[in-house]
Every structure is written in structure tokens, then in C-alpha cells.
């Protein structure tokens, strides 16, 4: 079963259009939604959470229409947004008590274990939390009601590298259970590259690609060559290119360039930047 299936999702604002988005996140997998500022990541997530109205398209979560299953959305979807908010005077321990009465599947032991493991104070008031503590508390809460799908919007932005690494560890721990899936948006590509099984590139409201990360890294590589050599390549082999003072650089499909051509491995961030610049 797929944790999330999106077909033809469209939403238009005055200056922006999320254009017929198709995405599939298989159960047990982590998908990273990568896009520049304003690419449409939060709009996509709000549509999945059904907090804004779509113009067209369908969204199913665990096979069910997201608009018709309020209970499913509450229990089976965990949400962590950029600005984690709890009442200022509550401590971590008190948040747990409230959540026990909010969620059917609340696991207070798992919650307190997460807080201890990731150094989130139990007895400090939320108003005195650092940004990193707030984010880790938000993730611990979202994971402890045992959702099948966890959705995070820019959950690692503004965090230092040590806390970002802890967040990545928390998310990895969550997906050790094969029934758990994650959709995480970020423009910090390095975090997503470490974490994700699937990568989706969103650019100006259009999906540039959505593929398994390992397949992507196998499929594409980078070449450094003379501009004339680049011009001789089949246009369909080239996903993005730039000319520098020293020659040309291009992202190519490994299986579409001549045998023997020296193709180096490429990272997800480089691939995204090249593709966005090329507008492909
Ligand atoms: N309520 C709204 N009314 C009009 N335009 C909107 C509204 N909400 C979002 N937009 C526009 O939609 C576009 C996409 O915004 P969105 O927040 O989805 O981008 P994003 O990829 O999440 O960006 P960021 O990384 O900066 O958070 C932007 O141009 C934004 O101005």
C-alpha cells in the first residue's frame, strides 16, 4: 500500500500555480521534497493536510481520501511544522499528559524515552526552550501517537548541525517500523540526502522529478569537457549544463553518453541546482 498518493494536484494563487502534481510515497519509505524558496513545498503540505482548498486533483493517505477521513488525518498523520507551538507555561512532562487525552494511540513511555534520549528537558517550561528543543519536542509528540505518515515542513531549518543530526536520527528511528513513512520538505538538501529513500524536486510549482534516491545517483553523473564535446552529445542525455572559464560542465544520463566518457558521481544538491538553472 502507498502511504501517500497525489494525482493532478493543482492550486493557483494570483502569482503562483502548483501545477498538476503527481507523487507516490510507498509505505515504509522517506521522501524528501526539495525546492527553492517559494517552490510550493508548504502549499503542497497544506493541501495534503487539507488546511487549504485545492483547485483540482486527488490525495489519498493510506488509500483513503484525505478530505473524507478526519479521524484518519488526526490519528494516522503526524505533523511537524516550521513553528512548533505549545502553550508557553507547559513543561515537556505536562505536554505528554495532555496528549494522552488527545490521541487514542498515545505512548507516553515512548514519548518520555524520546525526550530523554534527545536531551529535551522534562520540567522546563516551553517558553524557555531553545529552537532546537522546541523542534525535538514537536517531533517527539508527532512520533509518539504512532502515526503511519509523518509530515515535516522545514523541520531542520534554523537548527545547528548537531541538532539537525539528532533530528535525522529521530526520524531514522521512527522508520525502523516498516509501517511508518515520512514526507519531509526542506531546502537543506544535505539532510534529505542522508535520510531519504525517495527525492522529489519541486521548482516554481512544477515537479521536476520524483525518483528513488539511489536510482537517481546511479542514473546521473557529471562530466567536465570542452564546450564542443558537450555540443556533440544527444540533447536528451544532458539534464543541465554550464560553461566555465575552463570548459563545460554538464549533468548527464550515464547510459546516454558515449561509452568510455569519464562521468563522475553527482550529489543530490548539485543535481537540483543544475536542473533548476536549466529549467528542465
Ligand atoms: N495565501 C496565499 N495567497 C497568495 N499567494 C500565496 C499564498 N500562500 C502561498 N502563496 C504563494 O505561493 C508560492 C509558494 O509558496 P510556498 O509557501 O508553498 O513555498 P515554499 O516552497 O514552501 O517556500 P519556502 O521554502 O520559502 O517556505 C509563493 O509564491 C507564495 O507567495
What does this structure look like?
- It is built from ten helices and 13 strands.
- It is an alpha/beta fold and 280 residues long.
- The strands form three sheets. The protein has a six-stranded mixed sheet, sandwiched between helices.
- A hairpin with a 2-residue loop joins strand 12 (238-244) and strand 13.
- It is globular.
- It starts with a strand and ends with a helix.
- Bound molecules: adenosine-5'-triphosphate.
- Adenosine-5'-triphosphate is lined by residues 13-16, 35, 37-43, 187.
- The site of adenosine-5'-triphosphate (ATP) has 13 residues, from helix 1.
- This is ABC transporter ATP-binding protein.
Low-confidence stretches: none
Number of helices: 10
Q: Whole-number average pLDDT?
A: 90
Spatial ordering of strands, largest sheet: 6-7-8-3-9-10
- Beta-strand portion reads 25-35%
Helical residue percent? 25-40%
Per the principal axes of the C-alpha atoms, what is the gross shape? globular
What is the N-to-C succession of helices and strands? EEEHEEHEHHHEHEHEEHEHEEH
Intertermini distance: 31 Å
Radius of gyration: 21 Å
**Small ligands present:** adenosine-5'-triphosphate
Q: Biggest β-sheet: count, sense, barrel?
A: 6 strands, mixed
- Classification by helices and strands: alpha/beta
Q: Tally of extended strands?
A: 13
Amino acid at each position: 500500500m502507498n502511504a501517500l498518493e497525489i494525482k493532478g494536484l493543482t492550486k493557483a494563487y494570483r502569482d503562483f500555480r502548483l501545477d498538476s502534481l503527481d507523487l507516490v510515497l510507498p509505505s515504509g519509505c522517506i521522501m524528501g521534497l526539495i525546492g527553492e524558496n517559494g517552490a510550493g513545498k508548504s502549499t503542497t503540505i497544506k493541501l495534503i493536510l487539507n488546511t487549504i482548498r485545492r483547485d483540482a486533483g486527488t490525495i489519498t493517505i493510506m488509500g483513503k481520501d484525505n478530505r473524507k477521513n478526519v479521524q484518519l488525518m488526526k490519528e494516522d498523520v503526524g505533523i511537524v511544522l516550521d513553528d512548533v507551538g505549545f502553550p508557553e507555561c507547559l513543561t515537556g512532562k505536562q505536554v505528554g499528559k495532555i496528549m494522552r487525552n488527545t490521541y487514542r494511540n498515545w505512548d507516553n513511555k515512548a514519548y518520555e524515552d524520546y525526550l530523554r534520549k534527545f536531551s529535551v528537558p522534562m520540567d522546563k517550561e516551553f517558553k524557555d526552550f531553545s529552537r532546537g528543543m522546541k523542534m525535538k519536542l514537536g517531533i517527539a509528540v508527532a512520533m509518539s501517537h504512532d502515526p503511519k505518515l509523518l509530515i515535516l515542513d522545514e523541520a531542520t531549518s534554523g537548527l545547528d548541525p548537531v541538532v539537525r543530526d539528532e533530528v535525522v536520527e529521530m526520524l531514522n528511528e521512527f522508520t525502523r517500523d516498516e509501517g511508518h513513512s515520512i514526507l519531509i520538505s526542506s531546502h537543506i538538501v544535505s539532510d534529505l540526502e542522508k535520510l531519504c529513500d525517495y527525492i522529489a524536486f519541486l521548482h516554481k510549482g512544477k515537479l521536476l522529478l520524483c525518483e528513488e534516491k539511489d536510482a537517481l545517483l546511479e542514473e546521473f553523473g557529471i562530466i567536465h569537457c570542452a564546450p564542443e564535446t558537450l555540443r556533440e552529445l544527444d540533447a536528451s542525455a544532458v539534464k543541465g549544463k554550464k560553461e566555465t572559464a575552463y570548459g563545460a560542465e554538464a549533468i548527464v544520463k550515464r547510459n546516454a553518453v558515449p561509452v568510455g566518457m569519464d562521468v563522475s558521481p553527482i550529489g543530490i544538491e548539485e543535481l537540483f541546482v543544475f536542473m533548476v538553472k536549466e529549467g528542465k
